[in-house]
Amino acid sequence: EFSWKLKDHPKLPKGKTIAMVVLDGWGEAKPNQYNCIHVAETPTMDSLKNGAPERWRLVKAHGKAVGLPTDDDMGNSEVGHNALGAGRIYAQGAKLVDIALETGKIYNGEGFKYIQESFENGTLHLIGLLSDGGVHSRLDQLQLLLKGASEHGAKRIRIHVLTDGRDVLDGTSVGFVETLENDLAKLREKGVDAQIASGGGRMYVTMDRYENDWDVVKRGWDAQVLGEAPHKFKNAIEAVKKLREIPCTNDQYLPPFVIVDDNGKAVGPIVDGDAVVTFNFRADRVVMIAKALEYENFDKFDRVRFPKIRYSGMLQYDGELKLPSHYLVSPPEIERTSGEYLVHNGIRTFACSETVKFGHVTFFWNGNRSGYFNPEMEEYVEIPSDCGITFNVQPKMKALEIAEKARDAILSGKFDQVRVNLPNSDMVGHTGDIEATVVACKAADGAVKMILDAIEQVGGIYVVTADHGNAEDMVKRNKKGEPLLDKTGNIQILTSHTLEPVPIAIGGPGLAPGVRFRKDVPSGGLANVAATVMNLHGLEAPSDYEPTLIEVVDN
Ligand code: 3PG
Ligand code: CO
Q1: Using CB atoms within 10 A of its CB, is residue 431 exposed (0-12), middle (13-18) or buried (19+)?
Q2: Nearest atom, ligand 1, residue 133 CA
Q3: Are strands 461-466 and 378-383 parallel, antiparallel or unpaired?
Q4: How far apart are CA 318 and CA 299, in angstroms?
Q5: Which of 11, 108, 203, 332 is the Cys-Cys partner for 252 at CB 3.0 to 4.6 Å?
Q6: Alpha carbon distance 96, 543 (integer Å)
């Protein structure tokens, strides 16, 4: 008989205030000049590492340990926070789409059958991130889907590409567009009318998240749906090459463009009767466009036209909103997350970050589900992010504000768990600006200090960890680990996440003296953290959770 009630932990008391701090993009790597965490002054994190060896360790944050297809897959915030919050390892979107494509099951599913109804008289539009980053989407999946869709009746296909440079090296967009153009040429030989119709950089067009800046989505809408953009080209390879020449532009921030025919007419606006698929498997950066494509009533920007289309996501992106209602592949069924258990066991939770990471400690943490489990037991606070900037110009971001909110929540006595995400090392790391990333790491460290001080005051416990690596290595390396140079002799900046493990530290005056990390879970990963935190709340974890990282020895 299932029960939400968790057993009391045999040795650990209830009632301690716990700070659960997630440093975004803070991995552990060799100390060198490209390790911004090492270069930065980070006295707080250093003291945790050098303080008590039995209460600091590394955990896996990439590959199979977080449900990704292979151990060559770097970690990311979605899978990292899913694992932290759910306490178990789920085959993630990337993997589920791989399986659905390999087995061909994708073409028998409800979502595909639904869009297929448009193939006879309409166009199939595919919108998504064009790279092999494997964080939001993968090129090989797009290639298989293109082939499969054409074999299953799509006669006219238009692709709306979003260039990356964030999960992959900047400048790689050109090669990805070339590869795609090659595939499309082959399809055309087979009689399928297939073309790239529009494009733009992921951070400037379409892929905003958590409703930070609807203008980003609108720019995409104008190009993809209305066929309007400031830049018009006859050829997508030329478009990307030319737009990259604009000073200060890069793959992440390419302005929107549309492809036009000889008469200057856009080749692929979205019109009544068409089918549309957003081919990203990861949710956060396509939820907004999904709303624009799906909702009859929508007031975030003027859509001008709202075509009657058949829209399907690669996955269903939001389990609570059931958005979108049609999808090609069923998402991982992440259920009974630690957050849901906690509200059933009297644990009052406060969660906070700034907009660009807010959903990480709420939506992702709770298994891709928006909203509260029980608003009487939970409070989620979002600090508005600065809009329309690259965070290297503001590397401190809202770290201080987040820490102040956490401090106040801890001191208020109203919460048992105070959970935050500190975005700096990740968001600034993604800009590839090494100097700014050093400043970012220092700012995050200062925020940790403020939170630990509050925990000290209330006699609480802290758990400090990260969701994946980023700022600890800012250079692309060869197999031997040596920095790679580009043609001009400069190092190749790594804007993406890494394969590195992340630290976890526990402590604070409320921690029972005999608590230490067990030695028998050496390959522990982020999914082991949920049981650990439940124990620190004085509760036994559910039996199907990944094992706790801690034990209590009698002194
Ligand atoms: C992004 O969406 O910003 C990057 O692709 C991944 O970063 P995140 O996983 O840290 O959010
Ligand atoms: Co990131």
Answers
A1: buried
A2: 5
A3: unpaired
A4: 19
A5: 203
A6: 25
Output the CA 155–ligand 1 centroid distance in Å. 34
For the chain of 555 residues, list the mean pLDDT of each consecutive stretch of 10: 96 98 98 98 98 96 98 98 98 97 98 98 98 98 98 98 98 98 98 98 98 98 98 98 96 98 98 98 98 98 98 97 98 97 98 98 97 98 94 98 98 98 98 98 98 98 98 96 92 97 98 97 98 98 98 90
Instruction: Tell me how many degrees the CA angle 82-292-381 measures, rounded to the nearest 5.
Output: 45
Evaluate: CB of 73 within 6 angstroms of ligand 1. Answer: no
Q: Which ligand is nearest to the CA of 209?
A: 1
Q: Is the CB of 98 under 6 A from ligand 1?
A: no
Among the listed residues 544, 521, 525, 506, the one whose alpha carbon sits nearest the alpha carbon of residue 12: 506
**How many angstroms separate the CA atoms of 172 and 202, rounded?**
13
Q: How many C-beta neighbours within 10 Å does residue 87 have?
A: 27
Could you tell me whether strands 231-233 and 257-259 are parallel, antiparallel, or unpaired per DSSP bridges? parallel
User: What structural domains and CATH numbers belong to the chain?
Assistant: 18-90+334-552 (3.40.720.10), 94-329 (3.40.1450.10)
Q: pTM score, two decimals?
A: 0.96
- Rounded to the nearest angstrom, the distance between the alpha carbon of 336 and the centre of ligand 1 is 25
Interface confidence: ipTM more than 0.90? yes
Residues with Cβ–ion distance below 5 A, ligand 2: 426
Q: From the CB of 135, is ligand 1 less than 6 Å away?
A: yes
Nearest CA to ligand 1 atom 10: 77
Q: Crossing angle, helix 434-458 and helix 43-51, to 10 degrees?
A: 60
Cis peptide before 384 (omega within 30 of 0): no
Q: How far is the CA of 306 from the centre of ligand 2 (A)?
A: 33
The answer to whether the CB of 81 is under 6 A from ligand 1 is: no
Beta-carbon contacts of 91 under 8 Å, excluding residues fewer than 6 positions away, are 67, 99, 332
CA contacts within 13 A on the Cβ side of 234 = 4
